[in-house]
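To assess whether ligand presence alters the predicted conformation, the chain was also submitted together with adenosine-5'-diphosphate. Input:
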Amino acid sequence: MSSQLIRALLLALLSTVVALPIGYFVAHWAGWTVFCLGLALQMAFHFRNFARLDRWSHNPVVDASLEGEGAWDGIFGRLYRHEKDLREQIAQRDHEIAMLIAAGQALTDGVVLLDLHDQIIFCNTTAETQLGLVIRTDRGQSVANIVRQPEFVAYLEEGDFSRPLTMRTERREDRVFSIHIIPYAGNRRLMQIKDVTQTDRLDRMRRDFVANVSHELRTPLTVLAGFLETLQEFDVDREERNRYIDMMSEQSKRMQSIVQDLLTLSSIESAPPPESDPVDMVNLLDKLRRDAEALSAGRHTIIVETDGQGDLRGSEPELISAFGNLVANAVRYTPAGGTIRISWHATPQGAEFAVQDTGIGIDPKHIPRLTERFYRVDRGRSRDAGGTGLGLAIVKHSLNRHQAQLEVKSTPGTGSRFAAKFPASRVAGL
Ligand code: ADP
């Protein structure tokens, strides 16, 4: 039996013990009155505490207002502790949920949680930007209403999520996303969205590069194989034979140039950052002039313009390779009788190495793509001039490694100017 019940019975017994002698010695009605008064007092006491409990239950604050009397004090105390524990647990859960949401927001990948019907429950801000979602308004929407591309809808419906789906979204055509749906907690789904634009671009570049190299090498190889077959199978006179051998040697030189340029590119890419020892520019300009004159074989006027001030800090072989390519291009793309002006000017604010020619010039639409590997304005002309299509790619890489910018100005039919602009940190000797 509970202590409250025993206490209630004892109080009733006390009323009876007091009421009985009064009823016996004074009057019956007096005894009953005392008995009823005892019970009424007990009821009033319980009612007062009950009303207090009722009031508190409407607004269960954890403070001293929850204080009972007598037996009620124990009940109120237990309620108080229970409510306090509950509130602490809720606060703890709220904190944990907030931390989980913060972790979701901190992810660099987009995350979208879907319910059993593929409706959006939660998404982080990365996913909002990637998919153009606004969680406040889109919560509860089917994800297929937001990402409407047929390939995504098919991926969602097929239910085979062993591989991610790579696609562009309607809203962000310039980006490529890899969307992976990961089932969890039964039929619920978590969408992980990675921005793979960069990897996709590199993949495409790698594929294009391999295709270009194969194509570039296949042409001279086919020519070589053809001549070899002819020489093996047919009796050709000496003169014809020598002509074939000349052409074969030309093709093998072409392959050599391509392989040499590829090796230069790859060594520049994998080399450590260029040193910052000063490179003697007077010597370098002299070498460039001699090389240009040798390549031109008297067909052009070569001018070197410099006040002889200042040197460059960097890797001499890389700078020779970059500047040499600019000079060689100027010679190759300038018809006989033209002028090639090589200039070098340095100030404490920066320096400029430039090659200006009076050659065929370049249509402005080609200029942004000139430094791509194997990009040529006129493939036949480049080949005839002994070009590999890799020269300006080498120039761009070497200059980048020296924090320099390549500036190209050209007018078709009039000439071009290729300028390498170096920052102050690369200038020495001023
Ligand atoms: P290539 O080996 O074909 O010369 P480059 O990468 O050096 O390859 O140059 C890319 C293309 O840029 C060339 O094929 C040519 O069309 C154009 N080009 C480069 N330099 C000049 C120039 N000085 N004048 C005109 N066109 C040029």
